[in-house]
């Protein structure tokens, strides 16, 4: 009998940690240089403990629908077919009433000046369901520049990844930047962190129940001057009535 040789290729990944103070991605084992990591804004204690309690109890009064990868979700937004690039009002009746105050608060932050969300998605993660979300880029045909998420019930880590690495820094393989999200914080992704780096929540980073609300704004195509400005105005009108029920 001839002996078989097995060759295993171990995928090399460079791990960094985002520092919100300096906005640098810092190498976990100090083997590589830190580098500026623009496009992430973190607002700690965006909501109070009391508000968190109220928000969760109101969300739990609505039905949660099973989603992919062990998540449950509630959607407040237009009916969208991303493949065909078609969007219509459908049964969209607006963002939920509980978000009105939060949106006003967001808009006080210079990074979120003029932020007008047209969609809200609540996601419920639980370790018993093995909840996670795979690395992905959010659509940019319908959704605009800023993605805003409020993280509730537990701390977690948002993993930013760049498959092709950063060859100009001598990092030819996948680069990952861990962004720690404290409970009750708000995080904004924009610029390179929004359009170039994928984001994910890995299974091992969901230790207990976690609920997040993600808010998205419209892209230029649906804003004044854009080809679909009229539809955009109609959707925003509905969204910002804050009378929504999950679709």
Automatic annotation (TrEMBL):
GO function terms (MF aspect): actin binding; demethylase activity; dioxygenase activity
Gene Ontology biological-process annotations: actomyosin structure organization; demethylation
Protein name per the record: Alpha-ketoglutarate-dependent dioxygenase alkB-like 4
Keywords, in A-Z order: Dioxygenase, Oxidoreductase
GO cellular component: contractile ring; midbody
Biological source species: Solea senegalensis (Senegalese sole)
PANTHER family, sorted: ALPHA-KETOGLUTARATE-DEPENDENT DIOXYGENASE ALKB HOMOLOG 4 (PTHR12463:SF0), OXYGENASE-RELATED (PTHR12463)
